[in-house]
Design a protein that fits this description.
274 residues; 11 helices; binds S-adenosylmethionine
């Protein structure tokens, strides 16, 4: 089994992303005008059910102002900015894609949140962060890009304090081979899906105790059906980030959910003492 990291990096290569965003955001006002994080929700929440899913996951995790939070696979930083704006906590994001980290920093400047939100380029399999530093870790729509799940969850446990929270919202394998391309992989070479049961079997031995476990597939199906009906939100949207085929990628994820091939899992864990 290859780890697929180079392929994943290519998939999220997004050449010239910050410049594209700068140009697209001119429609919202001049460069020195502070934007509200919510104004970016159509382009910076790169997962099923967008901002609503981030808000629900944060609530489930019990985020508070005093917490130091890590977002693993932070994308262009929308979830991190939402958490800091909503709860007043400090948030660090780590992502494999340098263009995404660069874009996340730019967008965070535009929302004036640089004091609370920061981003680093790095792999979830080797987080560039000290042990026991965070009260909570979020992982949203990232695990399906990662082959070595045991190592992923051990790294998340390592950077959490004992008793800290790990909240995950990811796509899982349900009943058959998915149709590609999907938003995280144009071919199966960079897709490493597990079933719900196998996901749990990978997480718990890393030093976690399950607090909540939810199959969110039905809510996701409703959301994709509405998206198909309404079409994508007006630009700037995720197409600005991922390119013009994003509707096809999202459409295939919706189809895989409708056909029972894939599902959506939300889960919360407590970090056991080491
Ligand atoms: C579908 S996007 C989700 C982004 C963000 N979590 C969100 O929900 O808006 C998946 C992200 O995971 C990142 N990623 C994939 N594999 C990674 C790894 N091994 N280490 C760090 N980030 C990774 C990608 O670069 C990409 O930004």
């Amino acid at each position: 089994m290859t780890d697929g990291l180079d392929g994943v990096r290519d998939h999220y290569g997004a050449t010239g992303l910050t410049e594209r965003l700068r140009a697209a955001l001119a429609a919202l006002g001049s460069e020195d005008q502070i934007l509200a994080p919510r104004q970016l929700a159509a382009l910076d929440q790169f997962h099923t059910r967008g901002l609503a899913a981030t808000a629900e996951l944060a609530e489930l995790a019990g985020i508070t102002a005093e917490m130091s939070v890590l977002d693993v696979g932070s994308g262009v930083g929308g979830p991190a900015r939402f958490l800091a704006a909503t709860y007043g906590c400090r948030v660090t994001g780590v992502d494999l894609s340098e263009p995404f980290v660069d874009a996340a920093r730019y967008l965070t400047e535009r929302t004036g949140q640089g004091g609370r939100v920061s981003f680093e380029t790095g792999s979830a399999l080797e987080l560039p962060l000290d042990d026991g530093r965070f009260d909570a870790v979020l992982l949203q729509h990232v695990a399906m890009n990662i082959a070595d799940r045991a190592r992923l969850y051990r790294e998340i446990r390592r950077v959490l304090k004992s008793g800290g929270r790990f909240a995950t919202f990811d796509v899982v394998l349900k009943g058959g081979e998915p149709h590609y391309p999907v938003p995280w992989a144009r071919t199966p070479a960079t897709s490493f899906l597990l079933t719900e049961a196998a996901t749990r079997e990978a997480i718990e031995p890393a030093g976690f105790r399950a607090l909540a476990w939810q199959d969110d597939t039905e809510a996701a199906k409703v959301w994709f059906a509405q998206l198909r009906e309404s079409g994508p939100p007006p630009p700037p949207n995720l197409g600005t980030v991922m390119g013009p085929d994003v509707a096809e990628l999202a459409g295939n994820l919706g189809r895989n959910l409708m056909e029972g091939r894939l599902g959506i899992l939300t889960a919360l864990f407590e970090a056991a003492p080491i």
